[in-house]
Amino acid sequence: MSYVTKSPWIIHYDGSSCNGCDIEVLACLTPMYDAERFGIINTGNPKHADIFLVTGSVNEQNISVVKQIYEQMPEPKIVVAVGICATSGGIFRECYNVKGGVDTVIPVDVYVPGCAARPEAIIDGIVKGLDVLAEKHANMPKSSVSASDAAEEKVKDEDMAIEVRYYGKTAEELDEDIADERVSDAQSVKYYSSSDKDADDSGDKNNGKEEV
Amino acid sequence: MEFDFTATAALSALAYLVIGPFVGGLLAGVDRKITAKMQGRYGPPILQPFYDVRKLLEKEAVTVNKGQDFYVMSCLIFMIITGVLFFAGENLLLVIFTLTTATIFLVIAAYSSNSPYAQIGAERELLQIMSYEPMVLLMAVGLYMVNHSFYVKDIIHSEAFSLFPLGGIFVGYLFILTVKFRKSPFDLSMSHHAHQELVKGVTTEFSGRTLAALEVSHWYENVFLLGFLFLFFANGTWYMAVVGVVACLLAYFVEILIDNAYARMKWQFTLKSAWFMTITFGGVNLMLLYFFKMFGIL
Ligand code: SF4
Asked: Which of A77-81, B38-42, B235-239, B254-258 shows the lowest mean pLDDT across its residues?
């Protein structure tokens, strides 16, 4: 058995989160949840870390930061996206400066949806990620990683992605739900505005009804 | 200086070489467990430090430059030599200077990377050396005055019970032990706890194998430092040996307690307080010892 799974050291980076998920990440270390009983340590140093925990979406300003932290971590390493923002951009998805989820910049291995992700879910996500970590260690080339190996690794990363479900829904389903909600919100606004128009102008009445 | 390697000396040196890291690792594991309990947490398994080191050995080797690995390995080797010399019963002064050499190699390793965190860590490590070194030297002098020898084997077997005439020096040594164990409030250059202003201080740029070597050298060092403490109790009888071991464990517990009760202090405080303790406890102790000897009381 590989020892990488027995002592997962973490580096936590806050992309552009609202700080909700960060508080939950810190809550994992409190006596209530005590992540250290799994050997999990929040190192704060990419060179010591095995797991890259990202909260919040990636924005145009911190793309290079996220990439740099990822590149400084020695193999084997995994990335855990915590919260719906890190998973897909979440509520900030359509902001002018937001690029999207973490997987738009670096390969993500585990998605932990939720807003904010609960400490239980975060610990669960990390523990699930340990399997990926063990697999990566097994596939690790003995010599230092070359560029082509790194490219292969990236492909593998995407194959092995694990999803933590949030109320039985995957991140994609949640995303669709949110999108649906947005559409229905937009529709209701439209309906409201068209009914406003109804009162004003009887000539457009038929057109408005047809649209809906 | 003749190297007199008798069978027992060789055996205890070998025992240190083989069992030393296991004892050190276990102590580190117990430390983390007790720390967790003090904070109302469950804590990691006792064997966690071994898992950590095994994992670090499995990681990809990333070094900033070629020299760094050499310096860290030298640190480990000199740390081992320090303990081997000590447990073989050799000269205390030689042991102390070898220990300093090992620490200096760590400082050079940290300096060799261009990381500002590691470099500030290295500077603080130098200040730490400056704060504890006088006390360690005074201790060697005190042990010499009581036991009439710098050789560890003579000190261990001498009839004189060092703790009473050297009470002040013992207190001073306990104080600087906090610095040596890298415990709060004096863990300026590097601490085992996460999230500090200096990232990981001297160890910031080390990863994988290099970090593992450093961790193991830290285990060796801790065992050796507790051995130093043991010298105060040894007088050649078995029951005092038991008392000595118990005292070492007790001292280790007190260090953990201090670690959890204090926040990190500034280097100015570390230096001033360490020297204050050295002069008031160590210096005055030696002075009294000198007068007692002059008047033939001791
Ligand atoms: S998922 Fe929710 S709590 Fe987490 S960063 Fe995004 S908005 Fe904040």
From this structure: B235-239
Residue with tokens 């990488």, as numbered in its chain: A4
Residue whose token pair is 């999230």:
B195
Q: Half-sphere exposure (CA, 13 Å, Cβ side) for B208?
A: 17
Q: Going from the N-terminus, what domains does chain A have, and what CATH number goes with each?
A: 9-141 (3.40.50.12280)
Q: Tell me the mean pLDDT in the region A160-177.
A: 62
Confidence of residue B156 (pLDDT cuts 50, 70, 90): confident
Across the interface, of B55, B62, B196, the residue whose CB is closest to A47 is B62
Question: From the list A38, A43, A145, which residue is nearest B194 (CB)?
Answer: A43
Percentage with pLDDT > 90 across chain A = 13
Contact A137 B48 (CB under 8 A): no
Each residue's pLDDT tens digit, A16-59: 888 999 999 989 888 888 888 888 888 888 888 999 999 999 98
User: Per-residue pLDDT for A194 more than 60?
Assistant: no
Compute how many other C-beta atoms are within 10 angstroms of the C-beta atom of residue A32.
10
3-state secondary structure of B12: helix
Of A32, A42, A31, nearest to A8 by C-alpha is: A42
A174 lines ligand 1 (CB under 6 A): no
- Contact state of B194 with A44 under an 8 Å Cβ cutoff: yes
The shortest C-alpha distance from B208 to chain A (Å) reads: 7
**Torsion angles phi and psi, residue A53, rounded to 5:** -100, 115
Beta partners for residue A52, in sequence order: A11, A79
Contact check, Cβ <8 Å, A45/B204: yes
Q: Measure A43 CA to ligand 1 centroid, in angstroms.
A: 23
DSSP A40-97: -EE---GGG-SEEEEESBEETTTHHHHHHHHHHSPSS-EEEEEHHHHHH-GGGTTSTT
Containing A59, the helix (H) or strand (E) segment is: strand A58-59
* Residues above pLDDT 70, as percent of chain B: 97
Q: What is the pLDDT of residue A100?
A: 85
Q: Is A112 in the pocket of ligand 1 (CB under 6 A)?
A: no
